[in-house]
Every structure is written in structure tokens, then in C-alpha cells.
Write the C-alpha cells for this entry.
Amino acid sequence: MISIVLGLFFIALGLWGIFDEFYYVADLFKGAVPVALMFCGTVAVAAGWIPPGKGVNINE
């Protein structure tokens, strides 16, 4: 029960922080989006570079 109450409190506190400091949150997302795109692009290139069947076999 205490974890639910604390979870709701932290969600409310986070929402208040997003609305109170909206421009800082927007700046964070503006800076994080290009980094996330580069990371996803690197993963996509690595997935295309490694041939199928050469990966780790989890069934063994």
C-alpha cells in the first residue's frame, strides 16, 4: 500500500515539475532526440551488418 501511495506522489510531483519547468523539459527532449536517433541508427546498421544465423543461439 505504501508503494502505491509513494508512486502516486512521485507521479504527481513529476507532472508538477514538467508543467512548472516546461521549457527546461522541452530543452532536454530537444537535446536527447538527436542522440537517440544516432543510437537507433547505429543499432539498425549493426543489425543489418551482422548476417542472420551468426548471433547467439539462446536455445542451447
In short: Helices lie at 2-20, 22-49. The first helix runs from residue 2 to 20. The chain has a mean pLDDT of 85.
